[in-house]
Specification:
Blueprint (H helix, E strand, L loop, with lengths): L3 H23 L2 E2 H4 E3 L5 E10 L12 H13 L14 E10 L8 E8 L10 E8 L5 E8 L5 E4 L4 E4 L4 E10 L12 E6 L4 H15 L4 E5 L2 E5 L8 H9 L2 E2 L6 E5 L4 E4 L4 E2 L2 E3 L3 E8 L2 E3 L10 E3 L2 E8 L4 E3 L5 H9 L5 H13 L3 E2 L1 E4 L1
């Protein structure tokens, strides 16, 4: 007989399988994974700085006047007079520095920054970013960045060949930013909170409101539009809004997705949603191939005729048509059946794009087609 421990493991494994199948079938998600809460957001920062210490791979000062001006201004602030100096260094590069300021970041918090070359620098490997203020959209400085730049790519060049892998003109400085100013926002002072859906949908917003009202036991949540659910704070959560948001974002809601087909014609990528349906339709697809081959002939003149050698063009044109019979795509119930029916036609993604558009024009496709 099996031990109690082994039976317990078997039962736990079976429960995990059942739960996984249930979640996969319903495609349910937490509210925190499909929506954002008002005020809890990042802020984008940007700055302009200099990277020094490059091994001759920086900006050419003659071709990048902004780098020359920045270098001269920095040296003058440090007490070095460069008005009459002929600067010709290639160890400096002007860069743009970007970062995301997380919500409710306090002074002294470290953040990651991204450094991107602005001039004609070839490589930022081994460079160090000098102190750079990072400003928000309001023009105020919220952080400063400094540190060695780490890049994922590299560049190597010889006399007759060169190798470039990745992007050596862009890199990151982990924890290279230091927050100096906090964004003022008092979450506890709000009397209402708006929940913003990342994929707006009327049905999903209503389901979120229903789930929140069932949790609280009062009609406090109201869907305003496909993208917004307004939550009026109940009295029992007065002053304890963090606990309320924590409970709400863990609620499980099944998002409702529209029937849509997304087509990227440049790359031939086709993405179909689960709700895509097609009525019974017959499809035929044929390829027309035209082949032209040239076989010129050389004509020699007769002896003692004083003629000239001439080339007579000979063209052979062949037309081949691949006639395929009509294929029946039955009315589908699931996405798998639709994919199987279209795969039965034995065609590639390029032809499948045209077939889907033709089925849509015939009124047999119950889905929206979005072409990127």
């Amino acid at each position: 007989m099996r031990s109690l421990a082994s039976l317990t493991r078997i039962a736990a494994a079976a429960l995990i399988v059942l739960l996984g199948a249930t979640l996969q079938g319903n495609a349910a998600s937490r509210i925190k994974d499909i929506a954002d809460f008002e005020g809890i957001r990042d802020n984008q920062l940007i700055g302009y700085g200099l990277v020094v210490g490059l091994q001759g791979t920086g900006d050419s000062l003659n071709a990048s006047p902004f780098t020359r001006q920045s270098l001269q201004a920095m040296l003058e602030r440090l007490g070095v007079n460069t008005n009459e100096a002929d600067l010709n260094t290639k160890n400096t590069a002007a860069v743009m520095v970007t970062a995301n300021l997380p919500a409710f970041s306090t002074q002294g918090t470290r953040i990651d920054v991204t450094v991107s070359a602005l001039g004609d620098a070839r490589n930022l490997q081994g460079g160090t970013l000098l102190v750079t203020p990072l400003m928000g959209a309001d023009g105020e400085a919220y952080a400063i960045a400094q540190g060695p730049v780490a890049i994922a790519g590299f560049a190597a060049q010889g006399d007759a060949a060169s190798v470039v892998r990745g992007v050596p003109t862009a890199g990151r400085i982990p924890n290279g930013g230091l927050v100096e100013r906090e964004v003022e926002f008092k979450l506890s002072s709000l009397s209402t909170i708006r929940i913003a859906l990342r994929n707006p949908d009327l049905t999903t917003s209503r389901r979120i409101a229903i789930a929140v009202n069932e949790l609280i036991g009062l009609p406090t949540a109201e869907p305003l539009d496909p993208a917004t659910v307004r939550l009026t704070l109940p009295k029992q959560f007065d002053g304890n809004i963090v606990d309320l948001i924590t409970d709400i974002e863990q609620l499980i809601v099944e998002p409702d997705l529209p029937a849509k087909i997304v087509i990227d014609e440049s790359s031939g990528i086709i993405v179909m949603g689960q709700q895509v349906k097609v009525s019974t339709v017959a499809v035929a697809q044929g390829n027309l191939t035209v082949t032209i081959s040239e076989s010129p002939e050389v004509v020699q003149p007769l002896p003692f005729s004083q003629g000239e050698t001439a080339t007579v063009p000979r063209s052979n044109v062949q037309v081949t048509e691949d006639n395929r019979q009509l294929a029946l795509v039955n009315e589908t119930i699931t996405l798998q059946q639709l994919v199987d029916g279209l795969n039965a036609l034995g065609i590639g993604p390029r032809d499948l794009i045209s077939i889907l558009q033709a089925i849509k024009a015939a009124g047999a496709l119950q889905a929206e087609i979005e072409v990127l």
